[in-house]
Q: What sequence folds into this?
């Protein structure tokens, strides 16, 4: 009897989760507005091709990294939207930074940013990268990624959900909020 329900679920359920049609209200109540576009000066040009992401951990608790890895799972499968990870910043289109930016890592972050191709896009993921998080005020931190390199899009949360990160990737690439369709940056 149990096997019949198991087979029925395999045949009738969708193979992957669709694009998120709305923000998770539980996460939104904890973190506020999850996707925050940066200034218009850092506005990206629209690219219509596959994009490679270079992830840079600036010293995090691995909460944001676990959410980033969920993007490659069958539930989110961000490769269907043309996103992939690359180990080289020279091959990357988008730099994804997580964690608290410490003083010794500032030259490394700037070097990786300089190696990115044009147009350069940077995502600050998590409260630690955006404003220092719980480490704000400690002398050995830069407090914000924006003080080190220009940031295209910020995703708040500790950690943000994979759906919010995926939405932020679309905002960084197209400049359009995928849920509302309104233009965020020009």
A:
């Amino acid at each position: 009897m149990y096997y019949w329900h198991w087979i029925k679920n395999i045949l009738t359920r969708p193979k992957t989760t669709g694009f998120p049609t709305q923000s998770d209200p539980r996460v939104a109540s904890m973190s506020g507005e999850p996707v925050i576009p940066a200034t218009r000066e850092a506005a990206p040009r629209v690219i219509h091709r596959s994009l490679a992401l270079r992830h840079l951990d600036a010293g995090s608790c691995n909460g944001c990294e676990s959410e980033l890895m969920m993007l490659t799972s069958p539930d989110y499968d961000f490769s269907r939207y043309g996103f992939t990870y690359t180990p080289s910043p020279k091959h990357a289109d988008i730099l994804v930074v997580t964690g608290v930016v410490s003083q010794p890592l500032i030259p490394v972050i700037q070097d990786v940013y300089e190696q990115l191709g044009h147009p350069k896009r940077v995502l600050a993921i998590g409260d630690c990268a955006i404003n220092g998080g719980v480490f704000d005020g400690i002398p050995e931190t830069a407090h914000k990624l924006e003080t080190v390199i220009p940031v295209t899009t910020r995703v708040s949360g500790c950690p943000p959900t994979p759906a919010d990160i995926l939405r932020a990737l679309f905002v960084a690439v197209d400049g359009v909020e995928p849920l509302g369709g309104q233009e965020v940056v020009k």
